[in-house]
Amino acid sequence: MHTSIKKWFELLVVIPVATVLTAGCAGQTPAPTSGLSGTIEIDGSSTVFPITEAVAEEFGKLHPQIRVNVGISGTGGGFKRFVVGETQISDASRPIKDSEKEQAKKNNIQWIEMPVAYDGLSVMVNPQNTWATSMSTSEMKRLWEPGSAIKRWNQIRSNWPDRPINLYGPGTDSGTFDYFTEAINGKEDASRPDFTASEDDNVLVQGISGDPNALGYFGYAYYVENKDKLKLVAIDGGSGPVLPSVDTILNGTYKPLSRPIFIYVNMAALSRPEVKEFIRFYMTEGPKLVSEVGYVPMPARAYSENLTKVQ
Amino acid sequence: MRNGSAFKRHLKLRKIKGGLFSTLFLGSTLVGTLVLIVLLADVLRDSAGWLDWQFLTSYPSRKPEEAGLLSAFFGSLWVMMFTALFSFPVGIGTAIYLEEYAPDNRLIRLIQMNISNLAGVPSIVYGLLGLSLFVQALALGRSILAGAMTLTLMSLPVIIIAAQEAIRSVPEAHRLGAFALGSTRWQVVRRIVLPSAFPGVLTGTILAMSRAIGEAAPIIAISALVYLTYIPTNPLDRFTVLPIQIFNWVSRPQEDFQHLAAAGIIVLLVVLLSMNAVAIFLRNRYQKRTEE
């Protein structure tokens, strides 16, 4: 009988090992080598992720020997790993905080900040909503500030319908939430708490597209992919209502809800040729890929400035 | 006559009651089955046309038509292999000790109670434990090994409890018979208890493994990677697993990625079902052999 136990163990261990090894070999395709190798570890914001992933994908075609790992721990989670030297590059949808700077200093980590794209935060309503075509920043503030008592649309403007208003927004861990609260309410993380929050922007898309009384905000890239299900609200920052678009985000008229997003690079890691090459590639090929994944590229000057920081 | 009609009326009522409950119980059985069918149909519909060879043999990509789950698939395979390797012997060993060797004292009862409680601890808690214990304290890094050890911790209570049940169900008479013939404790365990407890142990292990392969939460704490373009070649490599890859696709704005997620779910289900099938096959073969 014990021989059966032995057989069972064989099946349990040998089969998976064999599958891994054989398939592992079969999966590898010979590719040209650039001579560079090594591992680049990147983590951070899920907003910046699509850009970094696109760059890593194209980079990988030229340098198949370099492993580029990209994670999505969030801007804060990414910095936690960056300031202890665990990652070489950190994706961030907001600038590094003072507390994070201090930690980096304590661990002797020096870094460079590189803006890589603009992201417009779009404010959206359900397509059935015919009244809310534009809102001023002060109306937005009255609606979203902590302790706001607005429960119905006609409390914002008296000629709007007497219907309940249901709010949607990103979760408190996201850089988008940090930025929106700072830009609209004047203080980071200050927001009324009674809104449907999700870290997953698709949940917000579905919520707003299925609820005629909804109002919510999230990254412009998500609006672009779901244009038919959502309706944009123009934002009046003091000089007339402006809708977010590539043009208004780039020329700065879509205020105050457009923001730069960044990568942070560990200075010490830049001495490694593969990291340096990756950053060089990011800044030269990046602009093309940025618009491909739905973001607004910075002016060309910004990328060349980033490049000079590397050289 | 009056008595007879009262009996008839009563009988009718009893029959109605009986019928009512049988429908009620059938109804509750159908709830679960229906949900499963709806889920499967939905996923199959969403994945139609996306689950192809290219999908199985490609790395993640920003372009849905070029994306695949090769790295996540092998990540899951590696992690499950080591999880099984660690948790199976330790789990059975613990169960054998507790059932066959351990004295009945307060310490053992405390251990037993803790094992039962651990089976109900949420998986993210194991993830955080794994992060500080294996990744940081033991300096294994965010590696396959650290992930597998974390899932091992998570699976152990379930395996131990199932193995204990199986060992307990071996008739005492078999043990006593063997002892009477002069067997030692170890001989009894190896020749009498383990063979007949094995099918039950196997079932428990497979249940635990099935739960482990579908876990995203503890692995996110260990390795929040979603873009990885190589098949891990050693246990200390970085890795990602199927549930994380699926989760990442679900949270993308482009609709095509939702189809990829559905295709990924199918792959995960197939892996899970084939694991179960292997276990059931082995169990049946084994059961037959013990009966002979």
What is the compact description of this entry?
The complex is a heterodimer of chains A (311) and B (292). By secondary structure, chain A is of the alpha/beta class. In chain A, 41% of the residues lie in helices and 21% in strands.
Give a verbal description of the structure.
With 311 residues, chain A is of the alpha/beta class. Chain A folds into two domains: 35-118 and 259-310, D-Maltodextrin-Binding Protein, domain 2; 120-139 and 152-171 and 195-258, D-Maltodextrin-Binding Protein, domain 2. Helix content of chain A is 41%, strand content 21%. Chain A has helices at residues 2-27, 49-62, 74-82, 98-106, 137-144, 175-185, 201-209, 220-225, 246-250, 273-292, 300-310, and strands at residues 38-44, 66-71, 89-92, 111-125, 134-136, 166-170, 196-198, 214-219, 231-232, 234-236, 241-242, 258-266. In chain A, the strands form two sheets. In chain A, strands 1, 2, 3, 4, 6, 7, 8, 9 and 12 form a nine-stranded mixed β-sheet that branches. In chain A, strands 5-10-11 form a three-stranded mixed β-sheet. Chain B has helices at residues 2-47, 53-56, 70-101, 106-118, 123-137, 144-168, 172-180, 185-213, 217-222, 242-250, 255-291; one strand at residues 225-227. In chain B, helix 4 packs across helix 6. With 292 residues, chain B is mainly α. Chain B starts with a helix and ends with a helix.
